[in-house]
Amino acid sequence: MEFSVSQKVLVAELGLTQGVIEKKTTIPILSNLLLEAKGDRLSIAATDLELGIKTGCPAKVKKDGAGTVPARRLLEIVRMLPLDKEVRFKLLENHWFHIACEKSNFRLVGMAKDNFPVLPAFPHPLVKIPGTLLATLIAKTIFSISMEESRYTLNGAKLILKPDSMTMVATDGHRLALVETDHKLEGLKGEHEALIPKKAMAELQRLLADAGEEVVAEFARDENHLFFKIGERLLLARMLTGQFPNYEAVLPRENTRIVQIDRSAIEPAVRRVALLADVRSHAIKFALTSEGVEVSSSSPDFGEAKETVEVSYKGEPLTIGFNANYLLDFFGAAPEGKVSFEFKDEQSAGQLRPLGDEQFRYRYVLMPMRI
User: Fold this and answer.
1) In the predicted model, is pLDDT for residue 163 greater than 90?
2) Residue 365's closest CA among 353, 355, 356?
3) How far is CA 120 from CA 33, 110, 202, 225, in A?
4) CA–CA separation, 52 vs 13, rounded Å?
5) N or C: less crowded end of the chain, CB within 10 Å?
6) How distant, in Å, are the alpha carbons of 27, 136, 145, 167, 350 from that of 22?
7) CA–CA gap between residue 163 and residue 146 (Å, rounded)
């Protein structure tokens, strides 16, 4: 195999593969990229057996072929080469690679391409999803996915596609993020559900951001995998199996104590008060009175903090505790404008909803903390 490729173009594609490569793996070949040169294109593939990516770029191919090369070391080398110059690759004996650019020369130890896992081919797409909509669904839910490996079905978000709407929901047992939007999905027949692993969502977010606003993601699935094709790039993930919780059963329906606060007023107050919250629980206290909302925290190690946000509230007084970090996650995903805080009592889940967003219906359910 022998080919040459633009340094600038190659760096961009190599960067998109790095999130898939595991830093620590007991299978050495998974630390490598599969490079395949054919015709006028270089194809690049990476996988950790749960997640895979196929990408590529234009190349001047002198001799077709394929080989594997250490992923992180290759990126470090190419990144340090002169900007936008031609980088030349040649596969040598014993799977070694010779890499040259102007006066720089490297020889990298590769591995046999036959040891690289075979990635499944992209099946016929089910539907095309506007990239901006999909990226927004991910941004509003990804932080609510559980990190506990024992809670396998909570390690991803549930995507629900209907002919005229899209829904995504994620929960870690302490909070739940639910976002819905109305959008006609051309050609989709019936309802389709999929559990998307968190790592796949994070990589999908990166691919969508890199592709720009007008991009469309083609979604497909087979018996074991989910596929997202964005232009020439393909992300595939092993499907999570198991039963996602009945999230509709936990959505509050009797939260009658409601206060509406401008996000630009409440978010900075929470950030300041959180500075003196307990380092383990991150607990802060909300007290709703006729004078407004008092946000406070206390820690035996640091001291106490208290701040009042003046706002109209005519309901019964209420004092309730929340994890400050969970609140800040919501504020980061909510648009500018007013936020509705909806409570039932001190022991029941609270619900937060941004107001005035006509495109997305967003609900964030948060379990209270003992204070």
Assistant:
1) yes
2) 353
3) 16, 23, 21, 8
4) 14
5) C
6) 10, 26, 20, 30, 38
7) 29
DSSP 3-state of 260: strand
Q: How many CA atoms lie within 13 A of 55 on its CB side?
A: 25
DSSP at 10: H
> Which distant-in-sequence residues (6+ apart) come within 8 Å of 167 by Cβ?
158, 159, 160, 178, 179, 180, 181
C-alpha separations of 32 from 47, 56, 317 in Å: 9, 15, 60
Give me the count of residues in the chain: 371
- One-letter identity of residue 159: L
Exposure of 355 in the CB half-sphere (CA atoms within 13 A): 12
| pLDDT digits 0-9 by tens, 183-241 | 999 889 899 999 999 999 999 999 999 998 889 999 999 999 999 999 999 999 999 88
Q: How many whole angstroms separate alpha carbon 298 and alpha carbon 273? A: 9
Cα(86)–Cα(48) distance, integer angstroms: 30
Q: Is 77 helix (H, G, I), strand (E, B) or coil?
A: helix
Would the pLDDT of 74 be above 80?
yes
% helix, strand, coil for the chain, step of 5: 25, 40, 35
Q: What are 302-309's contacts with CB under 8 Å, separation 24+?
A: 302/275, 302/276, 303/276, 304/276, 305/272, 305/273, 305/275, 305/276, 305/277, 306/273, 307/269, 307/272, 307/273, 309/261, 309/265, 309/266, 309/269
Q: Which pLDDT value is given to residue 283?
A: 97
SS (H, E, C) 310-352: CCCCCCCCEEEEEEHHHHHHHHHHCCCCEEEEEECCCCCCEEE
Give 55's strand partners. Answer: 44
If we measure between CA atoms, which residue out of 83, 100, 88 comes closest to residue 9? 83
pLDDT for residue 278 is more than 90? yes
Residue labelled with tokens 């996650």: 329
Q: What does DSSP say about strands 233-238 and 257-262: parallel, antiparallel, or unpaired?
A: unpaired
In this predicted structure, what is the pLDDT of residue 212? 84
Identify the sign of the CA torsion 197, 165, 361, 366: negative
